[in-house]
Design a protein that fits this description.
The protein is α+β, with helices and mostly antiparallel strands and about 160 residues long. The chain has one domain (about 10-160): GAF domain (Beta-Lactamase). About 30% of the residues lie in helices and about 25% in strands. It has helices at about 10-20, 30-40, 75-80, 100-105, 140-160; strands at about 45-50, 55-65, 70, 85-90, 110-120, 125-135. Strands 3-2-1-6-5-4 form a 6-stranded antiparallel beta sheet. Strand 1 (about 45-50) and strand 2 (about 55-65) form a beta hairpin. Helix 2 (about 30-40) runs antiparallel to helix 5. The longest helix has 18 residues, at about 140-160.
Length: about 160
């Protein structure tokens, strides 16, 4: 398993995350509606709005997971945070970065992941990821990618108070 990378501008990125004052806040309907919409439209069991903190991924919204946070080092979102565009893993067991990941070989048995990084518009630093996960491998269609991109853009606007 390859640990999630740490960006070169990590200190400034974390400053942007903390400036938003969103970590450990209560669930909000505006984010929960987006993750529910992702699950329904993309036919996946899991969707999250994830904020990447120093050592953890924290879920502002999560459908299909009981956990509120996870270890950043083993997180898929930690990898997606630094992707140029959409980050897709069609079959986690065929990807050396994730084949022995605890979330692949154990609960919640992730076999597919797609995520898009979310940006703080004031600083332009990466703060989190909007993602979907499935328990079976799959290939995303162009239409499904467009849906995910739209939902991620809406989540980013909500995080930036641009609704």
């Amino acid at each position: 398993m390859k640990k999630a990378p740490i960006p070169e501008n990590e200190k400034e990125r974390l400053d942007a995350v903390h400036r938003l004052a969103i970590l450990d806040t209560k669930p909000e309907k505006r984010f929960d509606e987006l993750t529910r919409e992702a699950v329904e439209k993309l036919h996946v069991p899991i969707s999250t709005v994830t904020i990447i903190d120093e050592n953890r991924e924290w879920f502002k919204s999560a459908v299909g997971l009981n956990e509120k946070e996870g270890e950043r080092a083993i997180s898929f979102c930690g990898h997606a945070l630094l992707a140029e565009n959409i980050f897709v893993v069609e079959d986690t067991l065929k990807d050396s970065r994730f084949a022995d990941n605890p979330m692949v070989v154990g609960h919640p048995f992730i076999r597919f992941y797609a995520g898009i990084a979310l940006v703080d518009h004031k600083t332009n630093y990466l703060i989190g990821v909007f993602c979907v996960k499935d328990t079976k491998p799959r290939i995303f269609s162009v239409d499904e990618i467009a849906i995910l991109m739209d939902l991620a853009e809406r989540a980013e606007k909500e995080l930036n108070g641009e609704n």
